Amino acid sequence: MKVYALLLCGGSGTRMGGSGNKTLLEIGGVPGIVRCCRAYEGLADGIVLVTRAREEALFARVLAEWGVTAPVKIVPGGEDRQASALRGLQALPDRDGMALIHDGARPLVTGDVIRRVIDSVRTCGSGAAAVPARDTIKRADAHGRVVETPDRASLWQMQTPQGFFVRDLLRAHESAGDRRYTDDAALMEAAGFPVQLVMGDYRNVKMTSPEDWKMAQGMMVPRIGTGFDAHRLVENRALWLGGVCIPYEKGLDGHSDADAAVHALIDALLGAAGMGDIGALFPDSDDAYKGISSVILLKETARRIREKGYEIGNADVTILAQRPKMAPYIPAMRQALAEALGIPQARVSVKATTTERMGYEGRGEGISAQAAALIYETV
Ligand code: MG
């Protein structure tokens, strides 16, 4: 059964105190909507992103800049949440699968929550993420006088995703007519469909006010790593550095393309994540990596780091070489590295220096590189 994620990003964001779309605000260095898309990558067959009118191009640009690879269709929303959800449903390529409707303002959703919702739709026909209420909830009249204290044990706070069969959702929208509901579970209940709750996550908060955003920022713990690599310069080899082939009389010797700059960066990332080093992940005893482009290894490193729940903040690489001149190639290196990491070019720095003819770099026997990388862990 096809699984579609429907990300609602049409909120006005006025309570966040800005006129911009709050789903584009950064949390731990990454726009919220990019975090959402990455959470659904690999779990959903397709993503439909419902934006405010005339924001489609802006969202497309942000997703491209952050290297979001999942198939994303961007459509303009309606006048309120319910209308936007319906627009999203109508934009799906077919009506046979399930739709996971998700608030774009919940960027900290995890793969575990999404998987629980998908499993519940498969087995029960519905699955809505929720957490048991921690606070005692009161019902009060218009003057604030308590009318009733419902039993807390039976109270749940709703989150998203909320998953249902596309067909059922469309039928519920039809039967709702002009009546408005605050979430899709309520819409389904009103139409007579059973709604199954599944365990959400207390960290899966909705960014409504600046306080929510500050709280989410507080959950982001930065981790830093450094890397170093050096390779010998030899005849009859191409010179690869920072993912770019540089015309020169010699090249770096090694099992892969021997791109010391990329190798140092990979080690910096793995160091930040506490995931070992390049030799352990891509052993040079393995023929699969013979002559391989190191950029492919960098891309795979970024994928594995995100798989562990980290996001990449920024990276800084320094190349130590007496010759050739690196300056003309640095923009291309930044572009290649940023693309492989799935972060904007502005977050990737490449610098080069000579060693004033000192040491093996200075004598032209080899080239070395150092790197630092910052990643964020959500705690
Ligand atoms: Mg190396």
3D architecture notes:
- This protein is of the alpha/beta class and 379 residues long.
- Helices cover 31% and strands 28% of the residues.
- It is built from twelve helices and 18 strands.
- It has helices spanning 32-40, 56-65, 81-90, 111-124, 166-176, 184-190, 210-218, 260-273, 278-281, 294-307, 330-341, 359-362; strands at residues 3-9, 26-27, 30-31, 46-51, 72-76, 98-103, 126-132, 139-140, 146-148, 156-165, 197-199, 220-234, 239-241, 244-246, 251-252, 310-320, 348-353, 366-378.
- Strands 5-4-1-6-10-7-11 form a seven-stranded mixed β-sheet, with helices on both faces. It has a five-stranded mixed β-sheet with strand order 15-12-18-16-17.
- The two termini are 33 Å apart.
- The model has no long low-confidence stretch (mean pLDDT 95).
- The structure holds magnesium ion.
Descriptive labels:
379 residues, alpha/beta, 7-stranded mixed β-sheet, 5-stranded mixed β-sheet, 12 helices, binds magnesium ion
